[in-house]
Design a protein that fits this description.
CATH class: Alpha Beta
Largest sheet: 4 strands, antiparallel
Helix content: 10-25%
Distance between the termini: 51 Å
Number of strands: 12
CATH architecture: Alpha-Beta Complex
Shape: globular
Number of domains: 1
CATH topology: paralog of FGE (formylglycine-generating enzyme)
Strand order of the largest sheet: 1-4-12-5
Length: 280
C-alpha cells in the first residue's frame, strides 16, 4: 500500500471510529437517564378489557426487586456509535438492505431499529463500559415500570389515557393508521408518572424474555425472567422473543399489558428498545 493510500485509510478510519471521549459521554448520558424504580408487588397481566390477546391472561401476582430503567428509547444515533466503536454486525443478515429500504426510519434522532440480539448487545456494552449490570428489562420489569409501579393504568401516558398525537405517538388518518408513518423522536410527548417516555405507542420494545403464549399460567411470583425456551419461529432454529408497548401503526394495542412476539434475529421498522440496570 502506498503512503498516500495508507494515509487516506488512516484518516478515513479515524473519522469513522468514535474516540474514547465520545464513548464515555454516551455511556454517562445513558447512566444519567436511568430512572430508579422501587420494587414491590403488583398484579401483572390483563385485568379485563385492556387487550384482546389471550396471552395477557391470567392476571398473576409478581414481586420485583428494585431496579433502574432508561427514561428514553435508545436512538439510531447512539446505536450507530456503538456499531462503529465495536465493529458490531447486526444479527439480521439483511440489515444493510433493510436500512436502504427503510432509510427514513434510520434517522439519527429516531428510536433505534434493532433485532433482539442487537438490543441485548448494546445494553451489555453499556454495562461493560460502566461496570454496572445492564441488560434488557424483563417483561415483568417493563410492565411494572410502564404502569408506574403496577398501578391500574391502561396506557403508559401522563394520565393513563391515550389521545393520538396529544400524549401518544400514533398517526391516524380518516380512522385508519398511516402505514407509512414514522416513529417520533423519544420524548416527544409527556412521560408517565414515573418519568418514562414512550412506553405506549411509538415503537415496540424488546424485553429479555422468551415468548410462550401460556407463560402467564405458570410464571413464578418473584422476579420472573420468562420461559427457558421461546416459541419456535417460522425460521428453523430461531425463537420468538417478547416485545411490549405497541407501536405507531396501531392505537388499541398500545396498552400497558399488550404483548407481542417477534423472531429474535429479525428487524421490524417499528421495533426498538431501552435498557435496564440492577439496583446495587
Amino acid at each position: 500500500m502506498s503512503r498516500f493510500y495508507l494515509l487516506l485509510y488512516v484518516i478515513t478510519l479515524t473519522a469513522c471510529t468514535p474516540n474514547e471521549q465520545d464513548i464515555q459521554k454516551l455511556v454517562q448520558r445513558h447512566l444519567d437517564e436511568m430512572v430508579f424504580v422501587e420494587g414491590g408487588s403488583f398484579m401483572m397481566g390483563n385485568p379485563g378489557g385492556w387487550s384482546v390477546r389471550k396471552d395477557t391472561w391470567p392476571p398473576h401476582k409478581v414481586t420485583l426487586d428494585s431496579f433502574y430503567i432508561q427514561k428514553y428509547e435508545v436512538t439510531n444515533r447512539d446505536f450507530d456509535l456503538f456499531r462503529k466503536a465495536t465493529g458490531y454486525t447486526s444479527s439480521d443478515d439483511l440489515y444493510d438492505h433493510f436500512r436502504k429500504k427503510h432509510k427514513a426510519h434510520f434517522a439519527p434522532e429516531l428510536p433505534a431499529i434493532a433485532s433482539w440480539w442487537d438490543a441485548k448487545a448494546f445494553c451489555q456494552w453499556l454495562g461493560q463500559h460502566s461496570g454496572r449490570s445492564i441488560g434488557l428489562p424483563t417483561e415483568a420489569q417493563w410492565e411494572y415500570a410502564a404502569r408506574s409501579r403496577g398501578q391500574m393504568l391502561r396506557y403508559a401516558t401522563n394520565d393513563g389515557e391515550a389521545r393520538a398525537g396529544v400524549n401518544i405517538a400514533n398517526d391516524v388518518k380518516r380512522g385508519y393508521t398511516d402505514r407509512y408513518a414514522l416513529p417520533l423522536p423519544p420524548g416527544s410527548f409527556p412521560p408517565n408518572p414515573l418519568g418514562l417516555y414512550d412506553m405506549s405507542g411509538n415503537a415496540y420494545e424488546w424485553v429479555h424474555d422468551n415468548y410462550q403464549p401460556d407463560y402467564y399460567e405458570q410464571s413464578p411470583e418473584h422476579n420472573p425472567r420468562g420461559p427457558e425456551t421461546g416459541k419456535p419461529s417460522l425460521d428453523e432454529g430461531m425463537q420468538q422473543k417478547v416485545v411490549r408497548g405497541g407501536h405507531i401503526y396501531e392505537l388499541m394495542g398500545n396498552t400497558t399489558v399488550t404483548r407481542g412476539d417477534l423472531s429474535e434475529y429479525f428487524l421490524y421498522r417499528a421495533t426498538s428498545f431501552r435498557c435496564a440496570m440492577s439496583s446495587p
